Amino acid sequence: MTTAVALPRIIQGGMGVAVSNWKLARAVSLAGQLGVISGTVLDTVLVRRLQDGDSSGDTRRAMESFPVAGVADAVLKRYFLPGGRRPDQPYKLIPMYKQRVSVERQQLTMLANFVEVYLAKEGHHGPVGINLLTKVQLPNLASLYGAMLAGVDYVLMGAGIPREIPGVLDAFAEHRAATIRFDVDGLAAGESEALSFDPVEHGVTDGTPLTRPRFIPIISASSLATTLARKSNGRVDGFIVEGPTAGGHNAPPRGEPRYNERGEPVYGERDEVDLAKLRELGLPFWIAGGAGTPERLRDALEAGATGVQVGTLFAYCDESGFTGELKHEVVEHALRGDVEVLTDPRASPTGYPFKLVQWATEGEALPPRVRKCDLGYLRAAFKRPDGRIDYRCPAEPVEDYVRKGGAVEDTEGRRCLCNALLANVGLPQLRDTGETEQPLLTSGDDLVTISTFLDGRTTYTAADVISYLLGE
């Protein structure tokens, strides 16, 4: 068991698609805290960086160290464009995930996660973690193994109940195959489906055991922490306790749904985590959601926490993956006090409440997005009447979703997060109409008070955030 002395006081949140990129994670780790990369959609991020020419050469340099022969060369041959795409050239897409995909498709996911962790850890000995969404099941096994090949130190997972992941990490540390339950709507009682990954199929020739990363699930209830600590199929090393003020996806409120005048879900006493019960488990924990101040860090430590997880302050620092234009626009609005964060119960195809950043705009609003599902990371699996497994997303074209047996009311208000979050980090798809996918920002509630931290500044670094939180 790791001693508390070795654990970080500050965990940087694993935000969005490539917002928590390798540059941010590396900067935080170099400053003595836990830097975290987002593993979400990293395979698409990798191939788009290559199609944009990889001007820094960082991606290709990391690819050279991937320990499976031939994989990097094959990916470069298919996706790398010296000098980048033409202005009128859309990104080449990669095949959408299914229950069973080719070895090459899995290797692309392994490679992408390896590259991001490799770059985050390059040139120092600080810890680096990866954040994955439990609900986005299909890429997770290949993502974990790829990250472990690069020596990832922590695995953080929320948006579900990741009871099987500790056993996966145990198996992958010894290059053994792992299997997890696959969630499929419409299965008969007693019927089950699975997702499997076998390292042997991928030609890793060095059988030296890998370091088994610490596993830190993200929870919103002490009862879930108890379940994970006692019933997981392997070791759990601590918890991140996330409240409903955190950015991105939030756990839905417990009990009968209630909404405020803005249509946001209302959280109550039942949604507060019982820290006393959490302390009884004897595992370290970090407080997340509205924790981005020195006072909240002190409060967390006094409550028995090891520290805090902070996202919003890191999201707009120099090293984060948001485009410079978006950072500037958000910070300028925040300094004027006219930015707000809305918890939208409908926006995310996952069904989880999702936080949206918004402010008043002048001029004509953008036309609504034409629905198109060409990335598919948030699709849900279902069993068709003929027994085959198919996939649908309530943000895809309505007629497609209904044709697949989905209810039309489930499509109302849904947003395509896959495409929008890639636009946030400067990787938007170019459509046949000549239009590009538009960003969709998410942040924690802390954003509305970020001006206190900014103190008149319009730019800052990850090290500035850490110094502020530690009171240095």
Question: Which term fits the overall shape?
Answer: globular
Q: Return the structural class.
A: alpha/beta
Number of DSSP strand runs = 15
N-to-C span = 30 Å
Outline the biggest β-sheet. Answer: 8 strands, parallel
Provide the β-strand percentage band. Answer: 5-15%
Tally of alpha and pi helices: 16
The value of Rg in angstroms is: 21 Å
Please state the average pLDDT score. 90
Helix proportion: 25-40%
What ranges have pLDDT less than 50 throughout 5 or more consecutive residues?
A: 1-5
Strand order of the largest sheet: 1-11-10-9-8-4-3-2
Written account of the structure:
The structure is a single chain. Helix 10 links the parallel strand 10 and strand 11. The strands form four sheets. This protein has an eight-stranded parallel sheet with strand order 1-11-10-9-8-4-3-2. The chain contains 16 helices and 15 strands. The chain has a domain at 10-238. The longest helix has 19 residues, at 103-121. Residues 1-5 have low confidence and may be disordered. It has 472 residues and is of the alpha/beta class. The two termini are 30 Å apart.
Briefly characterize the structure:
With 472 residues, the protein is α/β, with parallel strands linked by helices. 30% of the residues lie in helices and 14% in strands. The model is unreliable at 1-5 (pLDDT under 50).
